[in-house]
Write a structure and sequence with these properties.
The complex is a heterodimer of chains A (about 270) and B (about 350).
Chain A lengths: L6 H4 L7 H39 L1 H34 L5 H9 L6 H12 L4 H8 L8 H25 L3 H9 L4 H29 L3 H6 L6 H12 L1 H25 L6
Chain B lengths: L1 E10 L2 E10 L4 E5 L6 H9 L6 E6 L2 E2 L10 E4 L11 H5 L7 H14 L14 H13 L5 E5 L7 H18 L2 E6 L2 H7 L2 E6 L2 E6 L1 H6 L4 H7 L3 E9 L10 E7 L2 E7 L3 E7 L5 E3 L10 E12 L2 E8 L2 E8 H7 L6 E5 L5 E3 L1
Parallel strand pairs in B: 3-8, 3-9, 6-7, 7-8
Antiparallel strand pairs in B: 1-2, 1-4, 4-5, 9-10, 11-12, 11-14, 12-13, 14-20, 15-19, 16-17, 16-19, 17-18
Classes of the chains: A mainly alpha (about 270), B alpha+beta (about 350).
Chain lengths: ~270, ~350
């Protein structure tokens, strides 16, 4: 009599033990709950009516618009200044390369109020740089450019490292093939390297944008007024207490989630 | 025509020193060398992708040493093909062409020649090794380059397909008439494709010549070892007779440990003797017509490789390699540790 062969006899690849997978799932679920729980609690607390009222509040609306605009400007600047450096770090071997890389990662480890104070000293009205900028009509401290400067300082490393990783993943031999097929260095970059690294650069920029929207510590020192959303919310919390801060906080959360989600949708996903 | 004049460069851990080589227009040159001998760097230098320290590069009578890569009109095929992953097969082949109808026909023509028409509108992911190789070749040839550089183009495909591709490459090249420089570590590529073979080793070109000549008469132990020209013995040449002919050659004895061979030599002293496996005669009976280089040896190992069987022998303490047809090996019915008679002509021993 022939006995049926059970699939487990055919499958010789050992799988992780059941408890191992179960423990992993459990721990991961705890972390997700820890992140999603407070956010849902905030939105629940805010209630649709209060959120609408906050949206009708000109001060809240203006601060959110200011935050989004400044974050976008800071991200654009970070891309403009950071992508070429990211490319150089990925491709070129030059003396001091490690130092350059270290400097560009530095803002990540600096507490944000410390960054704010350093920026204030560097760009303030009494500093040479601040004087020079004021002479050409660019006021930094206590003005909108101060917000952008603070955001740029804390978020630029994300763009640089995102671009560096993205460019590193494109084999330089692809560029060489393009060059031999008649492309100039710039054409090869535009036709081959950029399309292949675009996704990585975009996610770096997205992280930088998110980092900028969420910035508080450096901005509060450089430009308290006009108020970005995070400062307005903190202001209302300290002056009027929790109930006054919740609707604006809920609204900022929704706006940030909407923009973040939208950009994530725009990202091509089939490259991996 | 490709002409390299004293090309020296240093890339990463290795260097090339004073490499000179010329391939006539329409010719097929092969540079063969072990892995890590700087073959890819040599091609990248010719294409203008790596800096050179000294020397000149000429393409069709023009000095291109300082020319930017895009102005050199070179078709380049890398070992791993490096197709553009964000483009279709068609867009890959058309990459170096302008978007005009005549150029579109060029894509179709090459695709037809290489039998990849059905793939034209597919992406390059999921193509087999052979398909990728054909696409890379078509892409390199599409803009009608003056020279074609091939970096181990068959290394990534299995041996059966390698033979097919080699044949295709030869037909395509003859049709396109493009001067080609091909680097490889595969001895078979060199024998089957090249008009000129250059052996690269220790950072320089060790020997250049027609393939048969280089295989038959390696000029150094390195070349002999690398090309698998047979057994290389190190020993001493002692004169045993009067020199005749031009250049003058004399009968001599080559002493290597306990083994003494009768040879025809040009000079005395330390030398290497190269013995090709097919020149060693192996028999169970003595060879009466070989009065001199005739020895009793012992079979160490037999290795059958298709129609040829290699026999590892031990003769007076030295390891020698012989090869006989597999049919002969079966007739002899040799077994390891059996004794056999081994003989070879003095003229078959190539002294270096």
């Amino acid at each position: 009599m022939l006995l049926p062969v059970r699939p487990s006899h055919l499958c010789s690849v050992p799988r992780d033990p059941r408890w191992f997978r179960l423990a992993g799932a459990l721990l991961g679920a705890l972390l997700i709950l820890f992140i999603v729980g407070p956010l849902l609690r905030l939105l629940w607390e805010a209630r649709p009516g209060a959120l609408l009222a906050a949206a009708g509040d000109a001060e809240v609306r203006d601060s959110i618009a200011l935050t989004v605009l400044c974050a976008s400007a800071a991200t654009a600047l970070a891309v403009l200044l950071g992508v070429p450096v990211g490319y150089a770090l990925a491709r070129a071997r030059f003396p001091g390369r490690g130092l350059v890389r270290g400097i560009l990662d530095l803002p990540i480890v600096i507490p944000h109020p410390v960054a704010g104070i350093a920026l204030l000293l560097f760009l303030g009205r009494h500093s040479p740089v601040g004087k020079g900028l004021a002479a050409i009509g660019l006021e930094i401290v206590s003005h909108v450019p101060g917000i952008v400067a603070a955001m740029l300082f804390v978020s630029a490393p994300l763009v640089v490292s995102g671009a560096r990783e993205a460019f590193t993943s494109v084999d330089p031999k692809l560029e060489r093939v393009a060059r031999s097929l008649g492309d100039t260095a710039w054409q090869a970059f535009r036709r081959v390297t950029l399309p292949l690294s675009g996704r990585g650069i975009l996610s770096g920029a997205l992280l930088a944008w998110g980092r900028s929207v969420s910035e508080f510590g450096a901005i509060v020192i450089l430009t308290y007024n006009p108020k970005v959303a995070s400062i307005l919310i903190y202001d209302r919390f300290t002056l009027y207490g929790l109930p006054a801060a919740v609707p604006a906080a809920g609204l900022l959360l929704l706006v940030a989630l909407a923009v973040f989600g939208l950009l994530r949708l725009l990202e091509p996903t089939d490259r991996t | 025509m490709i002409r390299l004049e004293g090309l020296s460069l240093r890339v990463g851990g290795f260097r090339l020193d004073a490499v000179s080589l010329e391939i006539p227009t329409g010719g097929y040159g092969l540079v063969i060398g072990p892995t890590g001998s700087g073959k890819t760097s040599l091609l990248e230098a010719i294409a203008g992708h790596v800096e050179i320290e000294r020397g000149r590069i000429w393409i069709e009578g023009r000095d291109v040493t300082r020319l930017r890569p895009e102005l050199r009109h070179i078709g380049f095929v890398y070992q791993a093909y490096h197709l553009f992953p964000h483009h279709t097969v068609r867009a890959n082949i058309a990459y170096g062409l302008k978007a005009v109808p005549a150029e579109r026909r060029r894509v179709e023509e090459l695709a037809a020649l290489l039998g990849i028409e059905p793939l034209l509108d597919r992406g390059v992911r999921g193509l087999s090794g052979g398909e990728q190789q054909r696409v890379a070749l078509a892409r390199a040839l599409a803009p009608r380059p003056k020279i074609l550089l091939l970096d181990e183009p068959f290394a990534a495909v299995d041996p059966a397909l390698r033979r097919v591709l080699r044949h295709e490459l030869r037909l395509l090249r003859e049709r396109e008439g493009v001067t080609t420089l091909h680097v490889t570590h595969d001895v078979e590529d060199a024998l089957r494709l090249g008009d000129v073979v250059a052996v690269l080793g220790e950072g320089r070109i060790m020997q250049v010549g027609p393939p048969e000549e280089v295989f038959r008469y390696p000029n150094s132990p390195f070349v002999a070892h690398f090309l698998g020209s047979g057994t290389v013995l190190k020993g001493l040449v002692r004169r045993a007779g009067e020199a005749t002919g031009h250049p003058p050659r004399f009968p001599a004895r080559f002493e290597c440990g306990a083994l003494t061979l009768d040879v025809i030599a040009e000079r005395e002293g330390e030398a290497h003797a190269v013995i090709r496996p097919e020149d060693l005669l192996v028999s169970r009976a003595p060879f009466p017509d070989y009065p001199r280089n005739r020895f009793v040896g012992r079979v160490v190992r037999l290795e059958r490789q298709g129609p040829v069987t290699h026999i590892q022998l031990e003769v007076q303490g030295e390891a020698l390699l012989a090869s006989v047809t597999t049919a002969t090996a079966e007739t002899l019915a040799l077994r390891p540790s059996e004794e056999v008679t081994v003989a070879l002509k003095a003229t078959a021993i190539h002294l270096l």
